[in-house]
Amino acid sequence: MDKRDGGDPAMLRVDDPWQEAGAAAGLWLPEQQQAPEWAAGARPEHSGTAAVGDRAAVYLEVQHSEEFQEVRDRYRRFVFPVAAGFVSWYLLYVVAATTAPRLMAHRLAGELNVALAAGLAQFASTFLLTWAYARHARLNRDRAALDLRWTLATRTGQERVR
User: How would residue 60 be classed by pLDDT, with cut points 50, 70 and 90?
Assistant: First the structure.
């Protein structure tokens, strides 16, 4: 729903942690004219949840932890080389198609030429890389990321089901 529909887009946010963080930082929020009394430094009285400032400290602590850095490094060690290789392979295909039309028109078998084979290989490599990414995430990052997520949830009081 947006302004053209006559609805208030802010009403779609039910439990928005960014809204609480904005209020804690003293930012004006459209749903309220004033920040709550706890935004001035007092702690909110939530049942079993950490204060917004405490949550931010927990998030920063986890972000600077070795476990988080390891998950992020594993992601980067896989994604950056694979992305560079795939973009290079794609650019090689495009450059070859524009600069070497005779090579790309060379028939391999029947009506199959080099350009068509390379184009189909682009699709195949996309699916292969998608599978490789999902496998790498499952084997090397998912368990550690879930552990970090559980740590955040329990330390900020968000482990309950909403």
Answer: confident
- DSSP notation for 104-134: HT-EEETTEEHHHHHHHHHHHHHHHHHHHHH
CB-count burial class (<10 Å; 0-12, 13-18, 19+) for 69: exposed
For residues 100-115, average pLDDT: 92
Alpha helix segments (H runs only) across the chain: 17-24, 52-63, 66-99, 101-104, 114-136, 142-156
- pLDDT tens-digit map of 150-160: 888 887 777 66
What are the CA-CA distances from residue 106 to residues 78, 118, 122 (Å)? 35, 12, 18
Cα 22 to Cα 141: distance, rounded to the nearest angstrom: 31
Map tokens 């199959």 to a residue: 112
Verify that 95 and 149 share a domain, yes or no: yes
pTM, two decimal places: 0.57
Give the mean model confidence (pLDDT) for residues 5-22. Answer: 52
Say if residue 112 is in the same domain as residue 76. Answer: yes
Claim to verify: residue 147 and residue 80 sit in the same structural domain:
yes
Please report whether residue 51 resides in a domain. Answer: no
Structure tokens at 121: 């290989």
In a domain, 57, yes or no: no
9-23 mean pLDDT = 51
Does 81 share its domain with 151?
Answer: yes
